[in-house]
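Action item from last meeting closed. Structure (388 res):
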């Protein structure tokens, strides 16, 4: 999360609205109704929806577990060593590091992959049921959480660009990529593979966290639903009786994949993994974030006008400035080593100018659009990057 006063933002991954009495989740039916309300409010028919359930609220919710355990502290090649040891012990038979990571994830090893599911009821199961090593009611004293993610781009686990990306993370052999904080912004949705029975059963997929430290998933992507602890026993019962979802669920057969794969192929990212594309990917994320914050601020101003009040958006603007500045810092950090990358033919000067130009234009457009709505107190000009 970028530094700055974020008190204005919806707390706990956008779950503020879900805590109101009229949104209280009491059973499976009210949960499905809430999912439908969020999808309707988002009005994003082109998005792919995936979900994640957690049996309690964690300060590090929706974060890959490798960043919670401190295993990489002082050990830059921890993951590579882990995968080599797993291969030696026949805990994984695949030669690709991404496949090793999937095996590690489901073998309870630290991983930079975050489990998600296409099935909102599977996510609800995880929200009301702890990991199977524990009694199923052992977390009934804590509220559970379901997170819904709106995804607009897919990476295939078998594609060359996805595996090149993951290999660069593990091998740390690309100077333009290694240790550059701008790429921590690039959370990538990796579609599921049909070769792992647990993934099949859970209709699972992954979100890849890049970098040495965890950068929280952006607000525009994530919404949360709190599952009251009092509702957990009834929801577990309904999931079992009405949907056959429980710890011992039989794995379903694979069928009707043609339509599913055809739809996903329309959003499949097949761009080459390279420095220019990775930087553009990060700048594209900023564009999505600015769209999200613009709508939020204007809606807040409009609501205040309808109520006859005054919109207090100063803290919102401060927060958005901190978000933009986090991208600015990442790009400036990258630019410090640009001469070396240019000499190594990693990225050209023209490509870099276009990227910085896009960033500056986004900030300028955002500032101008706010001004059209009478919001002048935004220091967009100070957030631009000066170029030669």
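Sequence:
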């Amino acid at each position: 999360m970028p530094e700055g006063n974020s008190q204005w933002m919806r707390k706990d991954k956008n779950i503020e609205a879900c805590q109101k009495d009229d949104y209280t989740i009491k059973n499976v039916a009210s949960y499905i109704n809430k999912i439908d309300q969020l999808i309707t409010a988002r009005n994003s028919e082109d998005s792919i929806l995936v979900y994640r359930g957690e049996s309690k609220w964690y300060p590090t919710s929706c974060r890959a577990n490798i960043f919670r355990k401190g295993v990489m502290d002082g050990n830059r090649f921890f993951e590579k060593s882990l995968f080599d040891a797993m291969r030696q012990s026949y805990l994984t038979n695949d030669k690709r590091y991404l496949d090793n990571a999937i095996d590690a994830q489901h073998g309870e090893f630290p991983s930079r992959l975050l489990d998600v599911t296409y099935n909102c009821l599977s996510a609800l199961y995880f929200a009301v049921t702890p990991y199977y090593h524990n009694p199923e009611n052992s977390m009934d004293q804590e509220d559970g959480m379901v997170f819904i993610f709106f995804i607009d781009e897919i990476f295939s686990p078998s594609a060359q660009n996805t595996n090149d990306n993951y290999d660069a993370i593990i091998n740390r052999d690309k100077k333009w990529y290694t240790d550059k904080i701008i790429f921590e912004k690039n959370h990538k949705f990796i579609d599921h593979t049909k070769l792992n029975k647990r993934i099949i059963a859970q209709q699972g997929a992954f979100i890849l966290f890049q970098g040495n430290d965890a950068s929280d998933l952006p607000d525009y992507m994530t919404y949360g639903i709190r599952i009251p602890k009092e509702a957990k026993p009834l929801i577990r019962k309904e999931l079992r009786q009405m949907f056959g979802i429980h710890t011992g669920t039989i794995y379903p057969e694979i069928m009707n994949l043609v339509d599913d794969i055809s739809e996903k192929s329309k959003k499949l990212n097949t761009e080459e993994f390279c420095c220019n594309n990775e930087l553009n990917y990060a700048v594209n994320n900023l564009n999505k974030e600015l769209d999200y914050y613009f709508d939020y601020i204007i809606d807040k101003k409009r609501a205040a006008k309808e109520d006859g009040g005054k919109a207090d958006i100063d803290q919102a603007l401060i927060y958005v400035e901190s978000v933009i500045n986090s991208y600015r810092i990442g790009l400036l950090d990258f630019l410090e080593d640009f001469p070396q990358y240019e000499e190594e033919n990693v990225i050209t000067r023209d490509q870099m100018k276009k990227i910085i130009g896009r960033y500056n234009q986004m900030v300028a457009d955002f500032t101008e659009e706010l001004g059209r709505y009478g919001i002048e107190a935004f220091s967009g000009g100070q957030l631009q990057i000066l170029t030669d």
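Note appended to the action item: The radius of gyration is 22 Å.
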